Amino acid sequence: MLSYLLWFLVSILILLVMLFVACIVGIFLYDHVLAARSIPQEKFFGKDRSKSEDTTIRPFKVEYSEEEFNTIRNLINESVEFLDQSYEEVENTNGIKLSFLKEFADYWVNKYDWRRFINNINFSRQFVTNISGLEIYFVHLTPYNTAGYVRVRPILLIHNFPTSVHEFNTLIPLLVTNHGSTIVFEVVAPSIPGQGWSEAAHKPGLDISQTGIMFHQLMKRLGHHQYYVHGEGRGADVAEEIAFMYPRSVIGLHITRPQIDTGATLFKLLLCSIPTVRNYIMDKEDISNTNGGISKTWKMMQGYLFDQMCYVHPDTVGVSLSTSPLGLAAYFLEIFAAGTDISNRKSKDGCLYEFPGGLDWLITNLMIYLVTRSTIPTCRFIHRSRNIRLQNITVPTGIAFYPKNPFPIAGGLPRSFISSRYKNVIRYTRMESGGSFPSIEQPRRLQT
């Protein structure tokens, strides 16, 4: 009887060892033998293919409509009356507190100056050009004074979600001005199609790959066949696609949210919860920077919940948000509060009064989405881009990790995880503070 029990236990042990070895081999194959994905062909997203594409670069000016702003004001006032505050709010576990949302709505309607915002936007050098049948809006600034500079390099900035080119308002002047460096940048910052003043696609198929093709065409049209690329959040996804499709054109890639395959990374993080296994998966220098796989896995799942609704039925979400300014505000404010620090959810105002730029910046961002009808196209863009297979990145890459980012991928996964996909990481920086929106929170630190 004892021999049978011993034989059974040995068999179980052998099976567990085989399973463990199979998992390790599977992770290695997934990380290092990714199925090659061909570069997609450029598609046409305009209304009428028979019309010739206008390749000229044309100045652009945002037009102001008092009637449109009054309509938004009226919608906000009507929505506030329906907010249910029949019970006392104790914790901020339900999302943005209704008491703060009422204060925010009051400021929006009675104190926010839309005209001043329009004037500030039009102070920038704005342009449009037609690519793939769509009018692509972009900001283009050249160095103020190139005397004595060793190099002037073009850089493509790609914005995050739920933001727009507006998020780079502080960063751009820093990039085009000398701060004792031997390099200064010529900045090109386009809006993703359907977000901000870039025209939305009239045909299905717009994703991060097609957007990357458009932005590469934009850089070539401006005379830049080699350039740097910086992306944050969703913008980092587009930046990576450009680096994958046009490695000879991308001098360097800089991102704040690296993309590692979710399935493989989740499994690795779970294995890292086992101390004896962790030593075989992670480099020794990374072990001290990892606070356990399960906790980071849970944080990752919390982060991805932001996008889950758009992944499934984008138009349902888009219509719900685009027809209610206050509903859009509640959704965006939750992202900005948690995105800068997940603990902000415990605060009665989400610490949004301390947000860089204050309430004016947050409302301006909302106004851009509302007046340009960006919500539905944005949800479709997120939905369409969800299943694009990740590819290895070979261009020189810089990665900045921000500890308050709710995504553990962006908050500082071990370098041994990152290097499985990013083959040429020349700069790997763990920032001391900051969250999901570094160009807004810490533009000077990002600039360096």
Low-confidence stretches: none
Rounded radius of gyration (Å): 24 Å
Strand portion: 5-15%
Structural class: alpha/beta
Q: How would you characterize the largest beta sheet?
A: 9 strands, mixed
Annotation, overall tally of beta strands:
9
Report the helical percentage.
40-55%
Alpha carbon gap, first and last residue: 70 Å
Principal-axis shape equals: globular
- As laid out across the biggest beta sheet, the strand order is 1-2-3-5-4-6-7-8-9
| Total number of helices | 19
Q: What is the residue-mean pLDDT, rounded to a whole number?
A: 82
Order of helices and strands: HEHHHEEEHEHEHEHHHHHHHHEHHEHH
Structure description:
This protein has 448 residues and is an alpha/beta fold. 46% of the residues lie in helices and 12% in strands. Strands 1-2-3-5-4-6-7-8-9 form a 9-stranded mixed beta sheet. The longest helix is centred in the first third of the chain and has 31 residues.
Gist of the model:
It contains 19 helices and 9 strands. The protein is α/β, with parallel strands linked by helices and 448 residues long.
Helices and strands, with pairings:
Elements: H1 2-32, E1 58-59, H2 66-80, H3 98-110, H4 114-123, E2 126-131, E3 134-141, E4 151-158, H5 171-175, E5 183-190, H6 208-221, E6 227-231, H7 234-245, E7 250-255, H8 262-271, H9 275-281, H10 284-287, H11 293-312, H12 314-322, H13 325-340, H14 358-371, H15 375-384, E8 397-401, H16 408-412, H17 415-418, E9 425-430, H18 438-441, H19 443-447
Parallel strand pairs: 4-5, 4-6, 6-7, 7-8, 8-9
Antiparallel strand pairs: 1-2, 2-3, 3-5
